[in-house]
Amino acid sequence: KQEVTQIPAALSVPEGENLVLNCSFTDSAIYNLQWFRQDPGKGLTSLLLIQSSQREQTSGRLNASLDKSSGRSTLYIAASQPGDSATYLCAGGAIKAAGNKLTFGGGTRVLVKP
Amino acid sequence: SQTIHQWPATLVQPVGSPLSLECTVEGTSNPNLYWYRQAAGRGLQLLFYSVGIGQISSEVPQNLSASRPQDRQFILSSKKLLLSDSGFYLCAWSDLGDRASTFGSGTRLTVV
Predict the structure, then answer these.
(1) Alpha-carbon distance B79 to nearest alpha carbon in chain A (angstroms)
(2) Where are any strands of DSSP class E within B53-86?
(3) CA nearest A46 in B: which residue?
(4) Which strand (E) or helix (H) includes residue A55?
(5) pLDDT tens, A10-31?
(6) CA atoms within 13 A of residue B109's CA, in its CB half-sphere
(7) Which residues of A64-100 are buried (b: 16+ CB within 10 A; e: fewer)?
């Protein structure tokens, strides 16, 4: 059974500092790994999807890496801004019966101080 | 482009009352559909998923049921709500291509 862990649970940084968010998973037979952003009381916004055959994905100031052998993924956010304050969730995808079932970590709540 | 709609946004229901939450997807055909729940102090948990009309798989034993009467419609139901059913319910879809999951805006359910 896949277990996904995100440490730390909360993080506070000054504006402009780079953010490093960690995600670890127990089952290396992962199909993909997806990073999401969740604002308070809102749904999830997909940030990056990394397929199991890939090692990283980039979008603007965001870069996510995937190391299946060590069971780790890292999300980097460069030059953080107050608007980056949110909870960030990682989720490991497993394909069964053609459905992409996601197992989520508990999230890292980020506060970027102006 | 594809869009996913969920309603209602918030709901307060008494214990023992029925529940029906609806989710629809536009701009795609034969999507995989999912219901997740985010309970207070707990992470997101997959409740049900569906790979086609009338095909429902349950991930955890619970007081809820799901149905897929049409290709792009997914419904979460209960005959009698429990206090423990309170939470934030999220619908999601993915296709058979890149497998990325896209989530709806969620329904916050409070059972009183």
Answers:
(1) 26
(2) 55-58, 65-70, 73-78
(3) B102
(4) none
(5) 999 999 999 999 999 998 888 8
(6) 32
(7) bbbebeebebbbebeebeeebbbbbbbbbbbeeeebb
What lies within 8 Å, CB to CB, of A5 at 6+ separation is A23, A24, A25, A105, A106
The string of DSSP codes covering A83-112 is GG-EEEEEEEEEEETTEEEEEE---EEEEE
- Most confident range (mean pLDDT) of A44-53, A78-87, A91-100 is A78-87
Chain A positions in Cβ-Cβ contact with residue B43 (cut-off 8 Å): 89, 104-107
Residue showing tokens 């890496």: A65
Closest alpha carbon to A90 in A31, A42, A43, A48? A48
Of B34, B50, B106, the CB nearest to A43: B106
Q: Which secondary-structure segment (H or E) carries A36?
A: strand A32-38
* A94 touches B at CB < 8 Å: no
- Please, how many CA atoms are within 13 Å of residue B11, restricted to the half-sphere of its CB? 24
CA distance A106 to chain B (A): 5
How far apart are alpha carbons B49 and B68 in whole angstroms? 10
The string of pLDDT tens digits covering residues B39-56 is 877 789 999 999 899 999
Contact state of B46 with A101 under an 8 Å Cβ cutoff: yes
Half-sphere exposure of B93 (CA within 13 A, CB side): 23
Question: For chain A, first and last CA: distance in Å?
Answer: 41
